[in-house]
Amino acid sequence: MAQALKRNGRPSPARARISRDVTGRLESTPGLRRAKTEHAQLYYYPDYLTDEECAMLVERIDANRRPSTLLSRHEDPEFRTSESCDMDRWDPAVRAIDERLAHLLGISPENGETMQGQRYAPGQQFRAHCDYFHETEPYWPAMEKQGGQRTWTAMIFLNDVEEGGATWFPRAGLRIAPKKGMLVVWNNMSRDGSPNYDTLHEGMAVIEGTKYIITKWFREGPWIRTSFQAY
Ligand SMILES: O=C(O)CCC(=O)C(=O)O
Ligand SMILES: [Fe+2]
């Protein structure tokens, strides 16, 4: 029991409520399909972005990419070998997609972290991890102040990949091949608001081609804090 708690974290009524609200919203959205697994709550939305929108995002990722980083040091230097790019949320073309995503989930755009672009060349990968924060790690107090836990993830494949590059959820038993324009949304929490370890996932190595995606992580509270004063 203690082990389970340590690994899975504690139930949280506030996060359970977010789970419920977003679930209600997604399940009444035409075009979304729930993945057939009881272990995690994951939805697909094929053709969420047009080819033009995908091409626009790929162009921006190529222009601004830098080596991807991790929140905590990892003993495996190959853990995350991709390149990333912070998408400019005030760029009108990016902002429109950002706001559409927030609206789809029914989460305030302020709770969304900056949308990230990811690029994987052959051999590059992001090994198995969970998107939620581990509340026992030294980084947690800082994250807690900046919007708290990550609740939902939205990820969009921006191109088809010749070979490899699937997003694999080994505990939930799902392997999702990249498909241009397809949105994948999942709840990092369980229904009771505790982190769901069954959302463990891996960006498998690309074998042939280049993989481009965007990832958007939503926090339980506002991530953007406005500091302007009104007189
Ligand atoms: O590249 C992928 O398929 C997964 C990316 C991912 O897990 C993330 O950005 O958090
Ligand atoms: Fe992830």
Automatic annotation (TrEMBL):
GO terms assigned for molecular function: iron ion binding; L-ascorbic acid binding; procollagen-proline 4-dioxygenase activity
Pfam families found in the cross-reference section: 2OG-FeII_Oxy_3
Keywords assigned: Dioxygenase, Iron, Metal-binding, Oxidoreductase, Vitamin C
Keyword Zinc: no
Cell membrane keyword on record: no
Annotated region (Disordered), positions in chain: 1-31
Domain (Fe2OG dioxygenase): residue spans on this chain: 111-220
Cofactor(s) this protein requires: L-ascorbate
SMART domains reported in the protein's UniProt record: P4Hc
InterPro entries: Oxoglu/Fe-dep_dioxygenase_dom, P4HA-like, Pro_4_hyd_alph, Pro_4_hyd_alph_FE2OG_OXY
Protein name per the record: 2OG-Fe(II) oxygenase
Organism, as annotated: Stakelama tenebrarum
